[in-house]
Write a structure and sequence with these properties.
heterodimer; A: 553 residues; alpha/beta; FAD/NAD(P)-binding domain; 14 helices; globular; B: 198 residues; mainly alpha; 10 helices
Chain lengths: 553, 198
């Protein structure tokens, strides 16, 4: 592998990409392999597979991969604008600060959107109080890039009965079924639903020098120790570095994008590992820092020319934050499932994916069978125990000892409707460890999203009953206290008055500034967004490279 | 109390009754072996507490021991969660130490009021301890000690508790093995491909 280059700060680099996650890692690889010089900024450390552990206390409780916990990160959260946002013990806005971003620590449940997700506003009409809108592209336009993600990142799976059309089969077979999947399949079939394989961005066979999954059971929250998880750290960044055109500038926290008198992005200002202020001159900037951080950076980059934040003439930067609503139902069975082994989710149903007027509210979603609260012991203590057992004493200990290996969860995932009231803003009082204004999230789920989550939870309880659960209970569904799917805050669209970037991720306001991450998404989809973020990144890279070659940046 | 801070782990175990005859009978052989082992290694280490004083450590250990009691299977005392408390409250949970201290003081004030002559929670009988905890179940102090107990019991032993993985053995969790192979559990071992064609 070629040595990673080190670019001179005062010579404008072709592209500064801010954020090395699902989108940034792909853009860095695509553009550097195409011959452009790229500096890939990451505020977290450059950890590799050998640096990852199974230490639940450090990773989950002390937020090792999230930057060390909210008290140093400066995230705040509130449900409504009338409240003062506060920092909970564990971060409300959860994303990894490490090279590869959240693609390093995600569970790797990996689903395409469906054709309806891109044009649902036209299909269903407006929903009052929301910014429900069509995407400026269709499923058919994105499909080749979904396929590219599957074959270049490495995705295991098998098609399901309701899947959108695909141009190529999955590149590798599904991972082994787990006990949660077997029981779910039985229960789902018994009530007339159609169980299908959960696809994963995890290798079931070796690929490009990466090992197949070892079934260690530490996907969710943890980094993969064998590079079987298809993070950009494992799949893309080594290729970017090998191109000789990409410098990974880790532990570099960007706090401002400067624009020049011509209205073009000219410089990226950041703090280096020692906290010292640095600047990198640029020909173009791509912000891929996630749906929370990208909006914060644009808002922090306000200037006389851009008083409400960079690229924010629409006022849509930070607005329309979407998390995906969720609901969970848990069950204990007679015999051990040992859900702490293997990947998170095993099977899912998509019978309720499309919105249906007969339900009385907008929305749709999926239900999957997974380990969730029974993946690791501390998580089980915090979230997994049944509500009818007092949380201490002999009965608690005995129930814990009995349930841990016998328990599973059905997780429902549904939409989030885009609304003005849900947003990312700069916290007026709190700052993060670098002195940047804290990232303030304001979020309250739309009633329809919660109604859909409850509907899916009711179906989950029916599935668990039909599967023969000894005991089952539903976790209360209420307005969420945070999220990890960070979507919608720099939405794409054709109209500069109601979107931040165009259909190719170029900002409407600043010609050489692009945003590509979960913030680009116009609707939330009904499950896990990472595959769509990656497909958007491959597509954006192609268009951005073509524009650069044509001298049109 | 400063001088008590240097009390050894072995003397602490004795002072909290973990090595007394009655508790040995109650906890059975596997736990006995573990405690003996713990005491032996502590004796070698002569390790002092670094954050808590001995009275605080005794009370917190006693609360933890009612949250995860030693019965026919090991509990918080056998896992040595108090050593996790001591380490964490001086490090990553340092900001919680004032709340722990004030909560403990409040608890001991109620202990002293209702049990004349007993100024410390740790001196109460198991049943009286349970009654005292039931009264504070739900308050912030109890929530914090509960969290610390869960962390100390279930975290990797390198963080100070979960001695010899007693907590993981209790729940059937083999820990952080590098790899597994299917079948993982009873139901997938029984699985017949195609049994559900949906």
């Amino acid at each position: 592998m070629a040595d990673s280059p080190s670019f001179e700060q005062r010579t404008p680099v072709d592209f500064a990409i801010i954020g090395s996650g699902a989108a940034g890692g792909i853009l860095a690889r695509e553009l550097s392999v195409a011959g452009f010089d790229v500096v890939l900024f990451e505020q977290g450390k450059y950890r590799k597979a050998a640096d990852f552990t199974h230490d639940e206390y450090s990773v989950l409780i002390n937020s090792e991969l999230l930057g060390g916990g909210t008290r140093v990160n400066g995230h705040t959260f509130r449900h409504d604008a009338s409240e003062i946002a506060t920092s909970p013990r564990m971060p409300a806005i959860r994303y990894a600060q490490t090279v590869g971003g959240s693609s390093v620590h995600f569970s790797a449940n990996f689903l395409r959107l469906r054709p309806s997700d891109f044009k649902e506003r036209s299909m269903l009409g407006p929903i009052s109080g929301t910014n429900f809108a069509d995407w400026p592209l269709t499923y058919e336009e994105l499909e080749p890039y979904y396929t590219k993600v599957e074959w270049e990142m490495g995705v295991s799976g098998a098609p399901g009965p309701f899947d959108a059309p695909r141009s190529r089969p999955f590149p590798m077979p599904p991972l082994p079924i787990k006990s949660c999947g077997v029981l779910f399949e039985k229960g789902a079939k018994a009530i007339g639903l159609h169980s299908q394989v959960q696809p994963h961005a995890i290798l079931s066979k070796p690929m490009n020098g990466r090992a197949a999954c070892m079934q260690c059971g530490h996907c969710m929250f943890f980094g993969c120790e064998v590079n079987a998880k298809s993070s950009t750290l494992a799949a893309m960044i080594p290729l970017a570095e090998a191109s000789g055109h990409c410098e990974i500038r880790a532990e570099s926290a960007v706090f401002r994008i400067e624009t020049n008198s011509a209205g073009r992005a000219s410089e990226v200002l950041y703090y280096d590992a020692s906290g010292k202020q640095q600047a990198q001159r640029v020909k173009a900037v791509i912000v891929s820092a996630n749906g929370a951080e990208s909006a914060r950076l644009l808002l922090m980059s306000a200037s006389d020319q851009h008083p409400d934040g960079l690229a924010n003439s629409s006022g849509f930067v930070g607005r329309n934050l979407m998390f995906n609503a969720h609901a969970t139902a848990n069950a204990v069975f007679e015999r051990p499932l040992n859900e702490f082994k293997g990947v998170q989710a095993s099977r899912l149903v998509h019978d309720f994916y499309e919105s249906d007027d007969k339900r009385g509210f907008y929305g749709g979603g999926g239900i999957d069978a997974r380990a969730l609260w029974s993946s690791t012991p501390i998580l089980h203590a915090l979230r997994g125990m049944p509500p009818d057992v007092r949380a201490w004493g002999k009965d608690f200990k005995d129930a814990f000892a009995y349930n841990f290996t016998r328990q599973m969860t059905l997780a429902s995932s549904t939409t989030s409707l885009a609304m003005d009231r849900n947003n990312i803003t700069l916290d007026p009082t709190n700052t993060d460890q670098w002195g940047r204004p804290a990232l303030r999230a304001t979020y309250r789920d739309h009633d329809d999203d919660l109604a859909m989550a409850r509907f899916l939870q009711d179906r989950s309880m029916e599935i668990l009953d039909a599967a023969g659960a000894k005991k089952a209970w539903a976790d209360p569904v209420h307005a969420t206290d945070g999220g990890e799917h960070l979507l919608g805050t720099c939405r794409m669209g054709d109209d500069p008055a109601s979107s931040v970037v165009d259909r190719y991720h170029r900002s409407h306001d600043v010609k050489n500034l692009f945003m590509c991450d979960g913030g680009s998404m116009v609707t939330s989809g009904r499950g896990q967004p990472t595959m769509t973020i990656m497909a958007l990144a491959f597509r954006a890279a192609q268009h951005i490279a073509a524009a650069a070659r044509a001298g049109n940046i | 109390m400063q001088s008590n801070n240097t009390l050894s782990r072995r003397r602490f175990l004795q002072s909290t009754g973990a090595l007394s005859g009655t508790s040995l009978l109650k906890i059975g052989m596997p736990a006995l072996a573990m405690i003996t082992q713990a005491a032996c290694s502590a004796k070698q280490q002569q390790a002092p507490f670094t954050t808590l004083n001995v009275a605080e450590a005794a009370d917190l250990a006693a609360i933890a021991a009612r949250i995860m009691p030693t019965t026919d299977t090991p509990g918080a005392a056998d896992a040595g969660v108090v050593y996790f408390f001591d380490r964490a409250l001086g490090d990553e949970m340092k900001s919680d130490l004032p709340a722990i201290r004030s909560g403990l003081e409040a608890l001991n004030n109620t202990v002293a009021a209702s049990h004349p002559g007993k100024a410390h929670f740790a001196k109460l009988s198991d049943d009286d301890q349970d009654r005292a905890l039931a009264k504070i179940d739900g308050n912030a102090f109890f929530g914090l000690v509960w969290l610390l107990t869960m962390f100390g019991f279930f975290a990797m032993s390198r963080h100070g508790g979960n001695k010899d993985n007693v907590a993981w053995n209790l729940i059937g969790y083999p820990g952080h093995n590098g790899a597994w192979q299917a079948p993982f559990g009873y139901y997938d071992a029984e699985y017949d491909e195609g049994q559900a064609d949906g």
